[in-house]
Here is the input.
Amino acid sequence: MKYLYTFDVRICEARQPWCAKVFAALGLVGTLFIAPATAQSSAENSVTVTPSIAVVDTARRITIRGNWPTACLPSTAEIVADASPTPTQLTIRLNEIFAFVACAQVITPFAYEVNYTPRLAGVLPIVVVGTGGQKIAEGRMTTVGKDNATATFNLTGTWFELPTVKSLLMLSHSATNPDALVGIWSVFDSDGKSRALLFHSSVRMSTPSVYQAKLYSLSVSASAVDAACPNYGCPAPGFFGAEVGWVRIDVRSSRELKIEAWMQGAPTDVLAFGSVMTRHDF
Here is the structure.
């Protein structure tokens, strides 16, 4: 078993006046500096905010997960105080233990939680650092004003028109990125045949309850379709999406939204079609 000794003399001296006397007695002053163990890169660690989006003055839980390179995990996690009334970043520090201990060099999973209540609307970057200032993970917290509560609803589910169903909308709303929607809107062409329109990588507009994304139509080369494939369709390899327009979703409540489509080749100010849809409970 290999061990890594982790001790930062300079940090100890800065925080505990008695360190200098101890090191002087040991003859270590100015001669010992062993850097603390560094966590895996920030890209390999994660920051999750729950709920992912909320109105101001709502308490949020921030969870930091990842892997530490040794068995000597940080003791605690804490939010670094920021006196600014308009903070531009939320810094969370994982407090590493500095002592003459042998740390087994085994990658060790970690998870820490802190709570934070944002007072301002906007997107607040989150940066997690170690005691020595090294970056460990990154994330963000999205907050909206109390007059934009409709922007906080998760839209995952099945939607259609009432009282007469005309189309079907399937939505998946990211649990970690509140701006990200993936959806398939099933509509019908002039021959009465079903047509599936796909959208993803949505963005939130200046009005937080409105999302916008490019609209795609899926197709595949005829040669890729099995000759024995029935007329009603079957899976085929190598399908691709062709951009056909863009879609906008306006959230009206947790159970109702308005979806509209603009198609390529038509004037940008001319709406192709749209629907007011209701969430289906099942």
Q: What stands out?
A: DSSP finds two helices and 19 strands in the chain. The first strand starts at residue 3 and ends at 5.
